[in-house]
Please model this.
Amino acid sequence: MTVAIETRGLAKRFGDTRALDGVDLSISQGTVYGLLGPNGAGKTTTIRILATLLSPDAGTGTVLGHDVVRDARRVREKVSLTGQYASVDEDLTGHENLVLMGRLLGLSWRDARARAAELLDAFGLAEAAARQVRTYSGGMRRRIDIAASLVATPEILFLDEPTTGLDPRSRNQVWELVRRIAGEGTTVLLTTQYLDEADRLAHRMAVIDHGRVIAEGTSRDLKAMVGASALHLRLTRADQQGRARELVSRVLGDGLLPVGDATSVAARLGNPAQAADVLAALAGDSVEVAEFSVGNPSLDEVFLALTGHAADAPVSEDKP
Amino acid sequence: MTTDQVLALRARPRPASALSAVGTLAWRAMLKIKHVPFQLFDVTVMPIMFTLLFTYIFGGALAGSPREYIQYLLPGVLVQTVIFITVYTGVGLNTDIDKGLYDRFRSLPMWQPAPLFGALAGDLFRYSVASALILIVGLILGFRPRGGVLGVLLAFALVMVFCFALSWCWIIVGMLVRSPESVMTTSFIFLMPLTFASNIFVDLRTMPPLLQEVVSRNPVTHLANASRGLMHGQPVGTEILWVLLASAVIVLLASPIAMRMYRKER
Model:
């Protein structure tokens, strides 16, 4: 497969903060690629460099063979960027926003208007076409924002946290859109903090932490790094968590996975049959188990295992 | 998967020319005035109030009668109004940067400074509308420009030239500060002394000598004198030259800085 995006040793600092510390990526054409990481990991910086908005301090980035610094204009002809915040004019109507983009991209007034109507229709925004974007709901804003990036269908679409702050229904609509866009051949590079989002949408993904890629592969590859399967327990009583962890690690010989709350315990299983031993040990010590399951480790656990800290612990805005 | 006609990849059109991009972005600025006319009222209501208050409260004392005073005051208030509106250039730019709209513009294959010039073109339209409004209020209150239509139009044109130049300063402020509100505050720190330490409201000769020295060198004083002269058909060639010179200096100093800051990454 042809490589659409390639970076080598991409580095960028803002003052004393090292936003990117040598990022290597290779993204195949026509795929959906996820950049996964907590706030401040360097996801947005990577996308902004690839969209020619920032220049790297070191390293190179190429988009469809064009260098993002030397051939910036060529790159801009191939890509579209949908930033973290709805980057459309809130004072204008949905239709006007899309006509604006069409005109700036070189369409005639007539073609720009036709394209705007077509996109509004396809994105379920036809009824809101004549309303100012400031009256739109979060999900509608996101869709008009993505539509604005597709006025002239780009070969590469950058989506920076496309579903942050959306309700589940709107999130599903955006996922569906991303699949449709990718289905037509556009390469999509998206950033996300939601591990299930990357799991559902991305063919491959890179986990980024502190400006470095700490893992790369398909979601199955990443899960395999943490172990074949995982045991999840939910306890009835939070005060028994310590005791339960002790027992689990004694039976399994460590293998504990970090968890987010006080009633859960998770652990790597070499062999699913070991789950029975764990349950027996817990029952023998009167630790009450409300729920248990054995399955693939979730991407949350992958992230925790790889970075040693929770993925959903936002520190600051991921904005330079 | 079936072909999704709307999203299907096809050749992108040839990107818009610089001129067409600026024109399109000026169209956007007009749309904003249509959708948010409040930003125009915001800055015209205060000068209209000033005109009314000054005319009727101080008019008698300063010029013998309100009707006499408004002949002096109105060209100056027009200058002040349009100068105040220039702040919106910075506010608009700051809002666009804040909302991420400039990121989108800057990632488009178009002439990069097009959004700046598009905004300025839209602003010129805004200045014209505000000027017309003030003039209408003036005519109602008894303002009679002896320079006729041509004089008034020339005065308008001169105010536009100066305000276009001044806008570049607010573009810089708009890129420097954090929020649209602070663009306002910062700009008015400069604008208040600039417009009040001028002869917009009162004749230079009524001021203490030291202040006269300052006020007579203020470009806004020259602009007020020039538009007063043009509107009343008096010879003010030197004043016009001073205004053009000041405008040129501001553009030459501010625009390269503004352009560099605009191209610089954020």
